[in-house]
Design brief:
The protein is an alpha/beta fold and about 800 residues long. The chain has 26 helices and 24 strands. The strands form 6 sheets. Strands 13-12-14-15-17-16-22 form a 7-stranded mixed beta sheet, sandwiched between helices. InterPro entries: DH_E1, THDP-binding, Transketo_C/PFOR_II, Transketolase-like_Pyr-bd, Transketolase_C.
Length: about 800
């Protein structure tokens, strides 16, 4: 049976005293980390600093109700909390400040994130899940204001889902759904839409979520009164307060940041509501101070008046905590007992300074040793080249004059030396070259690994299983293929669930989920409100807790509402933790060519360029889409799958092995062989390209048609280059705007695959106009490439090379 903090607080005075003094000590250590961290930045040993000073007491209180299995989704002020739940040490705090690339010394991000971005490691080294119920969990922080909120919703909702959903291994992710998701946010960031959308959804879904608002009265320099409709966010949220007997709304608790006893009570009550009743709670922590200002970028004296600064000094949480400790006394068995004397607290203060200084010193020495070892392995090899070029000695002297040396300085020296000795074949240069290749691979891993999964479950490793057809295979609407495939998926994978606008009761707007809610229940097949950012957030959070969510964004155009979360959060999860966390959510959407400005856009270039780290799969029909779902549910990569909106009513032959067949990622398909020109396309445009290829055939031009299928990853075996080698001409046809996906595809083929070597004509791209498509079939015809456009432009390539055989059309 899960217990709460309130139910466990019957302790002796001595234990109470020890607990108080431990809290005071930890608060002082955290404060000294902030002070010393700022000095390290200002003296040039670190690039930037942002710290949690002033927020120590509420975070100590929050940590007391944070149990194994719980999750936090917060922002870069929560160092005291991270210390209190053993997710941070003094050494790892400073290792992150210095951007140490060692996972052992800086386990949150291995130097990839600036300081204050906390995370625990959810994965073993091989990418498999740890037992998340046996540890306290922090989902990796991101900097964009309020960007942590949508993910928080999913982390909380996972607990509710685990109350009824069980599968093999689910015990590693939840104990009967009793976990809480804790969120933290600065008061100014509550002006962001993500905050309101998340809180609104949490109040509707009734998930166990506790959101702490650290209210220091400013958003950098802008006071609260200029941030919101009301300065008091608790007053502003009063309409969200739940009413007795209603399963809607949240609890709102307001408490002062410097009142230790009240903070303990506030978080104990918040935990009780969330853990026992699955009710979202907002803890509005007011009168927060910020002793060092917002960050090392500036001073808060510029925008706070003397009265405010004096008040902050007086009501500093640690100052008030010290006063409270010294004023506390109780009579036990006729004897007055106190918590500590002034001398004892001063001793704790001094010990905290020593602890922090020792931790900082060790972190700096470890960080520097990495660089000195690198220099030691490289510099002698560079010196061996001095006789081969007179400039080498100058390079070495310039390097030695540097007051502080970073890895980039070492690499700059090596690369300049190799450049200076180009064309020289000597043992000394070969040794340096070999060393350069060796250290470059190390740093490539340090700075560029884990954008995508590197585990055995990465999507590229999923084996292809072709669809099986027989005489009994029926011709059905495309939507029936994907619907029946989902039926098999939900039966096969109990951890899989889908949610989105109209996804449940009516089986999605195109009936691709028809009957699934009735069969599998409204927990696994659920309707949501119109709130794309938090639909994505639900998916991210659930996937971080071992579920396999399919987050449905009704139309491709609407994905713009959640593109920030895709770009800043989902796409970077594995990268920013160097393989420490993953979130294999599948984003289901539909789009491509149809009708109108808002339902037939193709923001593929934005998705491609802003979401590196997410697979982008563009099936040409619903059978291919079904295969991609089957593939991705065996993978631990996140993906967006774009179904063809105009394909649901087109007939397809339904495979006999639904739920089993897979479509490999990064593999193209030649859908028509040809000899004269290679036509590359994807999605709904493929049908029109096939029509154009038939028309070109009548004109004496044999076109080979290639369906890309997968934009990320793209043609892993370079089959397109082989086609171009045969045809010597290349046309990329795309419904996106000029310079969009067609430019990406062209770059991949010409630069990565080196297909330019085989071209006898300039490569051609045929794309849509730069404006959004106008309405109806006529709008599509005049806005995006038509069969006529394709035939005429491709024909013109042949007219240019052989005008007699191919006379001009116009």
């Amino acid at each position: 049976m899960q217990t709460t903090y309130i139910e466990t607080q019957q302790i002796s005075f001595q234990d109470f005293k020890n607990q108080i003094l431990e809290d005071y000590k930890l608060g002082r250590i955290s404060r000294e980390m902030s002070y010393l961290g700022r000095r390290e930045v200002l003296t040039g040993k670190a690039k930037f600093g942002i710290f949690g000073d002033g927020k120590e007491l509420p975070q100590l209180a929050m940590a007391k109700v944070f149990k194994n299995g719980d999750f936090r989704s917060g922002y870069y002020r929560d160092q005291t909390f991270a210390l209190a739940v053993d997710a941070l040490t003094v050494e790892s705090f400073f290792a992150q400040l210095y951007a140490d690339t060692s996972v052992e010394r800086e386990p949150a991000s291995a130097g990839r994130q600036m300081n204050g971005h906390f995370a625990t490691r959810s994965l073993n080294e091989d990418g498999s899940w740890k037992d998340l119920t046996a540890q306290k969990n922090i989902s990796s922080d991101i900097s964009p204001t309020a960007g942590q909120m949508p993910r928080l919703l999913g982390l909380a909702q996972a607990s509710k889902i685990y109350k009824s959903v069980k599968f093999e291994g689910s015990e590693k992710f939840s104990k009967e759904g009793n976990e809480i998701a804790f969120g933290t946010i600065g008061d100014a960031s509550t002006a962001e839409g993500h905050f309101w959308e998340t809180l609104n959804a949490a109040c509707a879904l009734q998930v166990p979520m506790v959101v702490s608002i650290w209210d220091d009265g400013y958003g950098i320099s802008v006071p609260t009164k200029n941030q919101r409709a009301k300065a008091d966010i608790a007053e502003m949220l009063s309409g969200f307060q739940r009413k007795e007997g209603e399963a809607q709304g949240c609890e709102i608790i307001q408490v002062k940041a410097w009142d230790y006893a009240a903070l303990l009570d506030a978080y104990a009550r918040a935990e009780q509501f969330a853990r026992m009743e699955s009710v979202p709670v907002v803890v509005h922590v007011i009168e927060v101070t910020q002793p060092q200002g917002h960050s090392t970028s500036g001073s808060h004296e510029r925008y706070k008046n003397e009265e405010r600064l004096a008040w902050e000094s007086q009501f500093d949480g640690l100052v008030k905590f010290k006063e409270w400790i010294l004023n506390y006394s109780i009579e036990i068995d006729g004897k007055e007992e106190v918590l500590a004397t002034a001398e004892e607290l001063e001793s704790i203060d001094e010990e905290a300074k020593k602890t922090v200084k020792a931790g900082q010193k060790l972190a700096w020495e470890n960080y520097q040793k990495t660089i000195t070892d690198l220099i030691g392995s490289v510099l002698p090899l560079v010196e061996n080249l001095k006789g081969q070029n007179s400039e080498i000695e100058n390079y070495i002297n310039q390097f030695n004059k540097l007051v502080s040396k970073a890895k980039k300085d070492v690499f700059h020296l090596v690369r300049r030396s190799l450049l200076a000795t180009r064309g020289t074949n000597s043992a000394e240069r070969n040794q340096l070259m070999q060393k350069y290749n060796e250290i470059f691979e190390v740093e490539k891993d340090n700075y560029s690994s884990h954008l995508y999964s590197q585990s055995q479950w990465k999507a590229e490793n999923v084996q292809e299983i072709k669809p099986i057809y027989s005489d009994a295979s029926e011709d059905v609407d495309g939507r029936v293929v994907v619907r029946n495939n989902f039926d098999k998926i939900f039966e096969k994978y109990p951890e899989t669930l889908v949610f989105g606008e109209d996804a449940g009761n009516i089986g999605d707007v195109n009936q691709g989920l028809e009957g699934m809610q009735e069969k599998y229940g409204d927990v696994r097949v659920a309707d949501t409100g119109i709130r794309e950012a938090t639909i994505l957030g639900q998916g991210i959070g659930m996937a971080m807790r071992g579920l396999r969510p399919i987050a449905e964004i009704q139309y491709l155009d609407y994905i713009l509402y959640c593109l920030q979360g895709m770009s800043d959060d989902l796409a970077t999860v594995q990268y920013r933790t160097k393989g420490g966390q993953k979130s294999p959510v599948i984003i289901r959407t539909r789009g491509h060519r149809l009708e109108g400005v808002w339902h037939s856009g193709s923001p593929m270039a934005g998705i491609l360029n802003l979401s590196k780290g997410i697979l982008v799969l563009v099936p040409r029909n619903l059978t291919k889409a079904a295969g991609f779902y089957n593939t991705m549910l065996q993978s631990d990569d996140p993906a967006v799958i774009v179904e063809c909106l105009n394909g649901y009513r087109l007939k397809e032959k339904q495979p006999d092995n639904l739920g089993e067949f897979t479509v490999p990622v990064g593999k193209i398909e030649v859908t028509k062989e040809g000899a004269d020109v290679t036509l590359v396309t994807y999605g709904s445009t493929w049908r029109i390209v096939m029509e154009a290829a038939e028309e070109l055939g009548k004109l004496g031009i044999s076109a080979e048609v290639i369906d890309v299928q997968s934009l990320i990853p793209f043609d892993l075996t370079h089959e397109i280059a082989e086609s171009v080698k045969k045809t010597n001409r290349l046309v990329v046809i795309d419904e996106d705007v000029e310079g969009g996906t067609s430019a990406f595809i062209l770059q991949q083929i010409l630069e990565k695959q080196k297909a330019f070597r085989f071209l006898d004509s300039d490569p051609l791209t045929i794309s849509a106009n730069d404006h959004r498509p106008a309405y109806a079939s006529d709008g599509d015809y005049f806005s995006k490439p038509s069969t006529d456009d394709m035939v005429e432009k491709i024909y013109a390539m042949f007219n240019e090379t052989n005008p007699q055989k191919y006379p001009a059309i116009f």
